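Field notebook, page 463. I keep forgetting to write these up properly, so this time I am using the form the group agreed on. The chain and the ligand, manganese (II) ion, are recorded exactly as supplied. Prediction of the bound pose follows.
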Amino acid sequence: MYYLHIQNAGMKAYINKNSDRFLNELLDLLRIPSISADSKHKDDMLICANAVKDSLLKAGATRAEVYSTDGHPIVYAEKIIDPALPTVLVYGHYDVQPADPLELWHSKPFEPTIRDGKIFARGACDDKGQFFMHIKALEVMSNNNALKTNIKYCIEGEEEIGSPNLAKFVSANKTLLKSDVILISDTAMISLETPSIASGMRGLSYIEVEVTGPNRDLHSGVYGGAVANPATVLAKMIASCHDENNHITIPGFYDDVLEATPAERAMFAKAPLDEEEYKKDLGIPALYGEKGYSTKERTGIRPTLEVNGIWGGYTGEGSKTVLPSKATAKISARLVPNQSSQKITSLLLEYFKKIAPAGVTVKATEHHGGEPYLTPLDSIAYKAAAKAIEKSFGREPIPVREGGSIPICALFEKELGVKIVFMGFGLDSDNLHSPNEKYDIANFYKGIETIPYFHEYFAELSK
Ligand code: BES
Ligand code: MN
Ligand code: MN
């Protein structure tokens, strides 16, 4: 025990001594505009993948490679110290969401800026700031002779567009990725005072509905009233998806939902939520959602249906009297355990085609999706993560169900036969996908401090 203590003290001292450099290296990574959705940034994706690879080698990886795919490249790296020891596979993503609307940023999204102890930049929390902690933790462990596990890294460049090429890479490289657990830092915790661990992620179905009426935009006075208005029809179809209790009305939508047990609901209720603070932060006068469930339950254990974007007709300055020829919406559902993304996508597509009234044609097409994921709370890996967090935060973490999705999780488990444990250090208020995304510097260092404990406890508990 004395020996362990000395080693931990050594790692802490190392982090303190190198903290400025760690931060500056992250800022360099954040300067690369690796937007996976935007083909203008294709070259930046490769530049970013190479930067990640170089940082892994610098941190002590014995092998690091950039694998090209039909889309953006995947970075793989490893440090194998002893094949007899357990192996941890770290997954993360170097791609980021588009930064628009740019005018709402207080500093430029790809010119990282520090204000109030927070790093503001696109990708600061999602996910560059988070996977980079694992790279720095590798450096810390390597340089303090403290590695207790083998470590592999798989950092992809297409998470934000649904990981279309990672599945193929995983099934073609099962031996390369062979591991005992997959560790992901791409989620949030409640706060530094109240640490939490994501025990599940929601799945996703995503469709696009295009309603077409007349063969051209029409004068709304000459034709309005006599011709179905695609925008009105689309709005009605969308409104029909929820009843007065905000329950989803699409037939079969809830059929496969694995309801959380009263014991699970009681456990999740332990996660505090200050509803006044929540409303204030979002600038909303009241909360809204499915009757019978708390706010946390609405975003954690319940499936939902959202409109992500809707357009059609005249949206420019002033007014133009026009009956649009077309109206379109992007609609997604978040799914909970036991729901199947493919099945729900089919239900949604069928529903919108079926309820289309005469007078319009409806085209419904599918986008990417992903399955929900649940982490068992009794696994060695979960225990190691909980213990690691307790050690560095001084408090046992609360398990919470995350509202977001990481599409590859279920596939990793299916293809590699290993469980995933989430150790996220972000905050819900980090503005992921929004203007002014940020990551608290304190969370960044706390993560670097916690990760070596995870490896140590995972090795210990695996014996
Ligand atoms: N890191 C997020 C997922 C996340 C966000 C988990 C917040 C927990 C808390 C991830 O990068 C993400 O944004 N995923 C997308 C999925 C996708 C297919 C674009 C999502 O959830 O919308
Ligand atoms: Mn992410
Ligand atoms: Mn994201």
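OBSERVATIONS:
- The longest helix spans residues 2-30.
- The chain has two domains: 9-201+372-461, 203-257+303-370.
FOLLOW-UP: compare against the apo run.
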